[in-house]
Each structure stands twice: as structure tokens, then as C-alpha cells.
């Protein structure tokens, strides 16, 4: 059973925020914030829509590093070198401490190997799903309640360098959160087909190949 979390979705543009509101309308504990990263109030974990090598010098990743310091990027890169032999696969995520008690964690979650278009793929879903799992796995291991992650902030995964349209970003992220909230109780092909259709199709039309 998934642990409850408060999900914040942020973006500085109203069009993206409107897409978030439409797709997440029926999902619980979601707040959409039209904001830059720098203006966010305290929260437990921010998800970085990263590349596979932890080079965080552009886009919202650069804002995260400017806020927390270059040592955070160095720690993330060292973990990628040690744990993933230098290249973190898309569909994985790990939690790293920031050292700031008001913003204690980030989740490093690649949406792409290197900057470039991921439109027409399920990589937004994969990165969002991996981030939710990393948060879940972190929290279930904690015996100290103060170290659990209760508030998770997501940017628009894949909307920048990834070139994914805002509505499709919101759709894939919402599917990942819906799957997080309702994990299957058994494994069979009906379950697999249902989840795959939710990811790949929208209104009966194939949108992810």
C-alpha cells in the first residue's frame, strides 16, 4: 500500500498549470503552484528532472544547485559514478540529502540521457513513477518520523529540453500518480494491459509508441 504524500506541481507558466489542474483534478492531495523553484515555501523533497549524468547546469536543475550549492551536484554525480557506473538509467531515481532542514531532500530522476526531445515516449511517466517509488522506499525505511518525506514537489517533467507538450506532460505524470495511489494486488495480463493502455493511449488514441 502506498504511503500518503502531499504532491505539489510547479511551473511558472499558467498554461502548464492549467494542464496540471485538468489532469490531476480527481486525484487527492495535489496542489498546483504557478511559481519558480526559487519562490517555493519549505517542503520535504524536490524532484529534479535531470539527465543521466547528473550535470545540473541548465534549466530548473541549475536553480536547484544555485539554491543548495554545487556540493549537492558533486554528491549526486559521485553516486551516479558509484551506483550506476557513470550513467543513471531513465526510470530510476534516488534521494539525496541537501543539508538544509527546510528543504531536506532532492530526488534525482533522469527524464533523458542527454538533453534532447523525448516527445512521443513514455519517459515522463517512467521518471515520475521512479520518483514516487524512491520517495516511498525512502520513507518506509525510516524509523524517525521526522526523516520521512511527506511533501513532494514536481516540476513539469520533460517540458523543457525534453520538448514534451504541456498537456502530455500533465497526462503522463497524472497516470504515474494514479498508479502510485492504486497499486495492483496481483500480477496478471489484465493488470499489465490496463496500465499500459493508461500510459500509451489518451481518449482511445495511441499517443506513446
Quick overview of this protein structure:
The chain has helices spanning 14-23, 59-68, 70-83, 123-140, 166-181, 189-200, and strands at residues 6-11, 30-34, 45-51, 94-97, 105-112, 151-154, 201-202, 205-206.
Structural category is alpha/beta
Strand segment tally: 8
Kindly report the oligomeric state of this protein. Answer: single chain
Q: Can you summarize the main beta sheet?
A: 6 strands, mixed
CATH-assigned fold name:
Leucine Aminopeptidase, subunit E, domain 1
Q: How big a fraction of the residues is strand?
A: 15-25%
Supply the CATH superfamily name. Answer: Leucine Aminopeptidase, subunit E, domain 1
How does the overall form come out from the CA principal axes? globular
Approximately how much helix is present in the residues? 25-40%
CATH class: Alpha Beta
Characteristic terms for this protein:
alpha/beta, 209 residues, globular, two-stranded antiparallel ribbon, single chain, RNase III inhibitor, TFA_Chaperone, Leucine Aminopeptidase, subunit E, domain 1, six-stranded mixed β-sheet
Description:
This protein has one domain (6-206): Leucine Aminopeptidase, subunit E, domain 1. Helix content is 38%, strand content 18%. The protein is built from six helices and eight strands, in the order E-H-E-E-H-H-E-E-H-E-H-H-E-E. A six-stranded mixed β-sheet has the order 2-1-6-3-5-4, with helices on both faces. Strands 7-8 form a two-stranded antiparallel sheet. A hairpin with a 2-residue loop joins strand 7 and strand 8 (205-206). The chain is globular, with a radius of gyration of 16 Å. 38% of the residues are buried. The model has no long low-confidence stretch (mean pLDDT 96).
